[in-house]
Amino acid sequence: MEIILDIQGFQGQTFIAKELAWITVDGGIEEISSVTVFETCHYIPWTQGQIPYDRLTKIIGKAVANKQFIYVKGLEKKRWLQNIVKSKTIIDLENLDCPPLKKRQDFQSNFCNSHEQHAPMYWCALENVKKLKEWFLKNYCGNPSLEKSLKLFCKLNIENMRPRDIAMLPKYFIIGCAADKINSIWSKLPAVLQEDKDIIKYRRCNIHYSPTAIDYDDFFNDIPLVIIGRLCRKNKL
Questions:
Q1: What confidence tens digit (pLDDT) does each residue in 160-183 have?
Q2: Are residues 112 and 28 in the same domain?
Q3: Could you count the other beta carbons within 10 Å of the beta carbon of residue 121?
Q4: Is the whole model's pTM more than 0.85, yes or no?
């Protein structure tokens, strides 16, 4: 499952989040505000909010608990979120050419209660995630295609691509451009590629393989690096 998240807050020496909103790509919206904010920046009083600030980490963790991909817009927000969620794939939508939100005048506005009186002047996390979702659905959802997959491959590390997008890449394209990533993306490969002998021979035994052993493959080039369900070749030898 995928989620789009936006954080609004005050940037001083340390970023202080005031407003948090998220939306699942295939679901609805949930918004939470913390108890602190810089009033003249977002027009939400310091005392307004539904949760204590020290609960923010737990709430974010719960929101992304079962999500495979998290999308945010902006490197600063990505880095801030990475400090809280360390084991998730977080993708900056700007790397996928998402345009500046202030230029997206074609979206229908739907601000949260805190911003509806001052919508022309201040950013709203709730409005942002709705805009980002609409853009994401238009550009990267729907039926997967080779064109979309190649675009994602050029913009992202293949390890950050969705299984449905990796499945559209030709076998020899993966071998030629991402052979060293086959081990890490193995669980995302379609079954037909997991059973393909040309793909299998690029699997690495994590226990015995060393990237410094340059001549190892040439010396044993007739034996796969690892065979699923059997001993690795070093044990075999």
A1: 999 999 999 999 999 999 999 999
A2: yes
A3: 9
A4: no
